[in-house]
Specification:
By secondary structure, this protein is an all-alpha fold. It contains 13 helices and two strands. Helix 5 runs antiparallel to helix 6. About 5% of the residues have low confidence.
Length: 335
């Protein structure tokens, strides 16, 4: 009975993950199609920020930042936040609640999520995942409220405002708190890794009087070694956030700044729609800090957190550096 229950649980998990991947792939194709419909920013022309008629569309306010957002934020949490803001008129009726307060609420969610992570109960850890998604939803809502109150539709970072710094600080503290919770879970319940050796041959057994040595050895994970593994992932998040913010700013200046000549505007628009630019941006969609955290949350849900940390411990750095190299290549050779 328990075997059937386990098989059913794994099958359900696989179906949900497969469904989400198909949905994200379909929406990415739609996003690429919407990018191809963007008109060039011609001299002395006035363009509306709203590139779509539906407020619920995940492509409302299409921008470089949106092109580089992680799929869960772009296609699930942000539309839900937009619907909430529209249905409740939150940005208008709750003017006393500032975007910075919403960012702080997200930090509270992250704190509770970190607390729930320090448990050997998979149920509590999945509750931690839901709480952290609440933090991510608040992160989407604070930007929507800020832009709505400023009359903006375009999904762009407000780099010149104090809220930009506060939002980044809230993200940093929230991510750090959650990783600390993951570390303390591993410290209280260290992973059990057994490394097996090849079984001895029949000749070896006969030669040693029928005695064999131990067939496996167990890795002892000290708190320092556990901290190092989690710290490596934390550094990947920091490195990814740095590169992601840099390339959003660089691509925004190069692709969204009005040009003084028609020829330059057409060339700018052509480069925005190029395959190389799209592929580079797409990889940042799945390699930015928010998406890395989402990968960790999925690993927690399927009870593979330690395996995920070990898998990306060094390979994650290589992926980010290679992606940064091609991003720099795209910026310097084609712009």
């Amino acid at each position: 009975m328990s075997v059937n229950h386990t098989v059913l649980k794994h099958s359900l998990t696989l179906m949900i993950i497969s469904g989400l991947l198909i949905y994200f792939l379909w929406m990415d194709i739609a996003l690429y199609h919407n990018i191809q419909l963007i008109a060039p920013v011609l001299p002395n022309s006035k363009q509306s920020d709203d590139r779509t008629s539906s407020f619920l569309s995940p492509f409302t306010g299409l921008s470089v930042k949106m092109m580089m957002m992680d799929p869960i934020n772009n296609y699930i949490l942000t539309p839900i936040a937009q619907l909430f803001n529209y249905a409740t008129s939150f940005s208008e009726k709750c003017y006393v609640i500032t975007p910075n307060m919403i960012s702080f609420a997200g930090l509270v969610f992250a704190g509770f999520a970190a607390k729930c992570m320090v448990s050997d109960s998979i149920i509590r850890q999945r509750i931690a995942v839901l709480l952290f998604q609440g933090r991510t939803w608040c992160d989407a809502l604070d930007g929507i409220v800020a832009r709505d109150r400023m009359g903006m539709v375009k999904h762009a970072s407000l780099r010149s405002t104090p809220g930009y710094v506060i939002d980044g600080l809230a993200d940093t503290l929230g991510f750090t708190a959650f990783l600390v919770g993951c570390y303390y879970y591993l410290r209280h319940w260290p992973p059990n890794e057994v490394h097996y050796r090849i079984l001895p041959s029949k000749e070896y057994v006969e030669k040693n009087g029928g005695h064999t040595s131990e067939n496996g050895s167990q890795t002892i994970w000290t708190p320092r070694r556990l901290f190092y593994v989690v710290f490596c992932f934390g550094m990947q998040i920091a490195l990814s956030a740095f590169f992601w913010d840099r390339y959003i700013h660089s691509y925004s200046e190069l692709l969204e700044t009005p040009q003084s000549a028609v020829g330059k505007a057409m060339a700018q628009n052509e480069q925005m729609k190029s395959s190389f630019t799209w592929i580079t941006m797409w990889f940042w969609r799945v390699c930015n800090a928010h998406c890395l955290i989402q990968f960790l949350l999925v690993a927690i849900v399927i009870d593979k957190m330690w395996e995920f940390f070990r898998y990306v411990q060094y390979s994650g750095f290589a992926v980010l550096l290679i992606l940064a190299f091609f991003s720099e290549l795209n910026l310097h050779l084609f712009f």
